[in-house]
Amino acid sequence: MEMALAPETLARWQFGITTVYHFLFVPLTISLAALTAGLQTAWVRTEKEKYLRATKFWGKLFLINIAMGVVTGIVQEFQFGMNWSDYSRFVGDIFGAPLAFEALIAFFFESTFIGLWIFGWDKLPKRIHLACIWMVSIGTILSAYFILAANSWMQHPVGYKINGERGRAELTDFWLVLTQNTALAQAFHTLSAAFLTGGAFMVGIAAFHLVRKRHISEMRTSLRLGLVTVAIGGLFTAISGDTLGKIMYEQQPMKMAAAEALWDGEAPAPFSIFAYGDVDEGHNKVALEIPGLLSFLAHSDFSSFVPGINDVNAAEQEKYGPGDYRPNIAVAYWGFRWMIGFGMTSLAIGLLGLWLTRKKFLLSRQYRTGEDEVPNLVLLRKPLGDRVGKWYWRIAIWTLAFPLIANSWGWIFTEMGRQPWVVYGLFQTRDAVSPGVSQGEVLTSMIVFTTLYAILAVIEVKLLAKYIKAGPPELTEADLNPPTKIGGDSRDADKPMAFSY
């Protein structure tokens, strides 16, 4: 009980809660900004109203999401000075540099263009207004990259020297920190997963409306865009995950051995489908495996040697001194599988949806007779079409949550698989905690923040649900007749323009 309430443990719990909570918004922010920009580009090029209505609908969901992301991100960064002051003192010279660039981009670059985009619908010409949302999208990607570069340095520290007199690490090569292979691979993987997340979010919401035969034109467009995004994002997530995994086998062999519950090194090494083991004894009691596959995933060679948990632990004890350098094996093992499982399930559902729409099991271009004379939801090739469509819509709605779960477990695996290191091979987590923060202070702040986040979660869900159910907004005269010069001019339209977002 005493260990469970130690300041280090509580600080780790608080940082874990805020990080996972914050990262629910990050991938949606990145992907929705780009998808909204794509829809607005389609409107500017074609002047079709369905693209404008879709832009305003997804743009509103994007704005709700980014507002929550910014708030939770600020709190997360404050924790470095609050609960992890020794970490900030030791590596702040390095870790703070990419965070400073991220803050400049997030709070100056993104905020400026978001403001112009929100309030510029009836003040800016089409193409200038469109450029604003594209600048926001670029800003979110750059912002994410700087954060990922900082985290990658924790995974694989480079471009630094230790100043013995000052007792701290100091930056020597900022460009190397930004461009090392860990940062590049992690950014590729995280951004791919972000678009998988945004695509699934779009597919789920479009399916919600289509199954109710509402907003057919806008939601059919959104469904197809979402399905294509899921397919492309999912494929790149798998490719980048394989690349990142090979890098991690070289840089953090303990993390990857724990991810496979591989206790002793083998050549060839099997990929674990299911395992149950004894951590104290250091072996598996039950193991269901695919022979040789892990060797291929680690080194692109079915017969290569892969070190196990016991091997790496012994090597690190010899290199860094006495201690237990194993992470929580169960969390690493199952977190790795849940990340892959939920992510690839989303990809499979997206690919299935593309095939079904292509074969016209789900949507038809035909018009049905009716009062509105609009394209309706048509399930063809009955009775097979009825059964397939019915089940696919249900699954698609729930799929929007799958990438979010995969992202959360991915980061839990990434961070907990590195333990006991906060900076791998350089600085341990137990040495990074603020020495002057008491157990009661950490516990109080954790309870307060967790309660506040729970309240914000309710607000977020209610806001999203409200605007999702409402669907795309009706267009005004100002929407259909934007100004031709900055500032607007009432002579550009028959009616005065008004703010209509």
Briefly say what this structure is.
The chain is mostly helical and 501 residues long.
Give me the secondary-structure topology.
Layout: H1 7-23, H2 26-46, H3 49-82, H4 85-119, H5 126-155, E1 160-163, E2 168-171, H6 174-179, H7 181-210, H8 216-251, H9 253-259, E3 271-278, E4 283-290, H10 293-299, H11 309-320, H12 329-358, H13 384-399, H14 402-416, E5 421-423, E6 427-428, H15 439-470, H16 477-480
Antiparallel strand pairs: 1-2, 3-4, 5-6
Keywords summarizing the entry:
501 residues, mainly alpha, two-stranded antiparallel ribbon, 16 helices, 6 strands, 66% helix, globular, disordered C terminus
Structure explained in plain terms:
The protein has 501 residues and is mainly alpha-helical. The chain is built from 16 helices and six strands. The strands form three sheets. It has a two-stranded antiparallel ribbon with strand order 1-2. Strand 5 and strand 6 form a beta hairpin. 41% of the residues are buried.
- Rg on CA atoms, Å: 25 Å
Portion of residues in beta strands equals 5-15%
Question: What would you call the structural class?
Answer: mainly alpha
- The averaged pLDDT comes out at 83
Uncertain segments are 364-385, 490-501
Helical content stands at 55-70%
Helix and strand string, N-terminal first? HHHHHEEHHHHEEHHHHHEEHH
Distance between the amino and carboxyl termini: 53 Å
